[in-house]
Amino acid sequence: MNAEASSALVAAYPLLAELPTPLRDAVAAAAGWHEFRDGSPIFGEGQHCGGLPLVLQGAVKVFKRSEHGREIVLYRVGRGETCILTSSCLLGGADYNAEGVAEGALRVAMLPPELFHRMIAESPPFRHFLFAMLSARLSDLMEQVERLAFHRIDRRIAEFLFERSEAGFHSVAMTHQRIADEIGSVREMVTRALGQMAEQGLVELSRAGVRIADADGLRALAQGAVPADRPAGDKSR
């Protein structure tokens, strides 16, 4: 790894600067650099785990796919983060039980399994980083399970759109199928729910995607308010 690459890696993962010198040198020597185009597969279900990816650019979308082709997004791994599924596979010696694809132009540094285990053994900052990430992802997944089990589909759509708006996106250039994949539903149900939300003035639908028309109303729905024309017991998915 050259000096520029090493600086870029430390900039994305400052904890690497806290590693003991021999371990830091081992990371610089062993890290393999890879670049992927948007949509490229990173790993697949049943595949052996070849190392820990450290993301410097872009993101990895981790998802499960049913035998009928239906998808549900589990989480994304962005710059400065790590993949808890990969960590779990490395710790347990197991194969992947989900899939990962590149979102955007992806650049990662791959650490070999033996170096991953050495970092856990020799670096308290790395252990803290890894376990903090595991804890945060577990919390996110528990929240997702709660949404899937207990929230109506219109609320799940509102939650997804509101989270996008909080990130600065007031329109979502996605097909109904992609939104369904994001929230763990099917396209037909998403299309019907979006049509009802459009009638309520919450969103505007077009070929370009979905635009938020009433941010306050969308926030209320995301927080559990039930539209006047929808009974509280209806948990349509």
UniProtKB/TrEMBL annotation:
Pfam family, any one: HTH_Crp_2
Organism classification: Bacteria, Pseudomonadati, Pseudomonadota, Gammaproteobacteria, Lysobacterales
Protein's UniProt name: CRP-like protein Clp
Subunit structure: Homodimer.
Keywords in alphabetical order: Activator, Allosteric enzyme, c-di-GMP, DNA-binding, Repressor, Transcription, Transcription regulation, Virulence
Domain of life: Bacteria
Domain Cyclic nucleotide-binding per the UniProt entry, residue ranges: 15-137
InterPro entries: cNMP-bd_dom (IPR000595), cNMP-bd_dom_sf (IPR018490), Env_Response_Regulators (IPR050397), HTH_CRP (IPR012318), RmlC-like_jellyroll (IPR014710), WH-like_DNA-bd_sf (IPR036388), WH_DNA-bd_sf (IPR036390)
SMART domains (alphabetical): cNMP, HTH_CRP
Cellular location(s): Cytoplasm
PROSITE patterns, alphabetized: CNMP_BINDING_3, HTH_CRP_2
Ranges where the HTH crp-type domain occurs: 151-216
Taxonomic source organism: Lysobacter hankyongensis
